[in-house]
Specification:
The protein has helices spanning 18-32, 37-40, 51-61, 87-93, 103-108, 113-126, 138-142, 146-157, 185-203, 220-227, 244-252; strands at residues 6-11, 43-48, 66-70, 97-100, 129-134, 168-171, 211-215, 234-237. The chain is an alpha/beta fold and 255 residues long. The chain binds phosphoenolpyruvate (PEP).
Length: 255
């Protein structure tokens, strides 16, 4: 029996044209209201399409249990920031969540903890739940620094006013993303316990409600084992979220 309601979030990354994205989202929504009703009663499901598809997907699944989120947002509400999307714009389209600080953004766009924190603060101000991603590189794990690095990212990326009910944390070891490799269940358990302990220091009692996701090569074949770990409250799923049956199987592994 899980203490917190679990969340299974799909990160579509830069994948999906309108027809495919709509098909995928619609089939997930239909499943949640049909064969997946048991899952729906225990687990929240969310898809994070590319910015171009947030509006059509949100319109297509409005009124269903499937949530929609963005993959990134700017730290300010509006202004001269060509090509960027603000948290308020995502909210306006029907999003409830936004991923911030994904390792691909930290790498490709050199995002720092400070910038991630500002984006998360913008998400809160806009009324979105930021899914704040943190995780060590392989070199950092090999050097025995994984816990310290993730702790530092947690504290550096968490905005003022964050509490256990208005943010979600995603622990995603960088070396496990898209590689088919995962940490041992012991390593995942140790890291999630550490994040919960850090959260208690920052948030007090509300840390008990904080949803901490695991992300990195979650698949139907390993989801049950990963989701059964204490303090793992769901998953952030990349590749496997692009296939409805795989994503459904991962959510089903939670119940
Ligand atoms: C991700 O991009 O957040 C992710 C976890 O990807 P994958 O599931 O493909 O490893």
């Amino acid at each position: 029996m899980h203490v917190r309601r679990q969340l299974i979030a799909g990160n579509w990354k830069m994948n999906g044209l309108r027809a495919d994205g709509l098909d995928l989202a619609r089939s997930l929504a239909v499943w949640l209201n049909g064969d997946g009703a048991d899952v729906r009663d225990h687990v929240d499901m969310l898809v994070c399409p590319p910015a171009t598809l947030v509006a059509p997907v949100a319109e297509a699944v409005a009124g269903t249990p499937l949530g929609v989120g963005g993959q990134d947002c700017h730290a300010v509400e509006k202004g001269a920031h060509t090509g960027d999307v603000s948290a308020w714009m995502l909210k306006d389209l029907g999003a409830s969540h936004v991923i911030v600080g994904h390792s691909e953004r930290r790498t490709d766009h050199h995002e720092t903890d400070e910038q991630v924190r500002a984006k998360a603060a913008a998400a809160l101000a806009a009324g979105l739940v930021p899914i704040i991603c943190i995780g060590e590189t392989e070199g950092e794990r090999d050097a025995g620094q994984a816990l310290a690095v993730v702790s530092r990212q947690f504290n550096g990326s968490l905005p003022e006013g964050a509490n256990g009910t208005n943010v979600v944390i995603a622990y995603e070891p960088v070396w496990a993303i898209g590689t088919g490799r995962t940490p041992t269940t012991e390593d995942v358990a140790e890291m999630h316990q550490r994040i919960r302990a850090d959260a208690r220091e920052r948030m007090g009692a509300s840390a008990e409600a904080l949803v901490i996701l695991y992300g990195g090569s979650v698949k139907p074949g390993n989801a049950a084992e990963l989701m059964a770990i204490d303090d793992v409250d769901g998953a952030l799923v990349g590749g496997a979220s692009l296939k409805a049956t795989d994503f459904q199987a991962i959510a089903s592994a939670c119940v």
